[in-house]
Design goal:
73 residues; alpha+beta; 3-stranded antiparallel beta sheet; 2 helices; 48% helix
């Protein structure tokens, strides 16, 4: 973690996940994030797991996949 790069990147991914969850909630349309590597997808899935009104799902068949964030309501 050179000069806090990973910590900042993780924080940015969490904020984007929350933002996309809110956007999905307000618009009713699923939002996409990606392509993301497995580590980045895990950070996004963990951030969305904290939100009871949103779900996340990885799609794709390669190393870099897209995360779909949608609302549960």
């Amino acid at each position: 973690d050179c000069n806090g790069f990973r910590r900042e990147k993780d924080l940015e991914l969490k904020q984007m996940a929350r933002f996309n969850a809110e956007k999905a909630r307000s618009s009713g349309v699923a939002q996409e994030m990606g392509p993301l590597n497995p580590y980045e997808r895990r950070i996004v899935h963990l951030a969305i797991a904290e939100d009871a009104d949103a779900t996340s799902e990885s799609t794709g068949d390669a190393f870099m996949k897209t995360v779909i964030i949608s609302t549960t309501r």
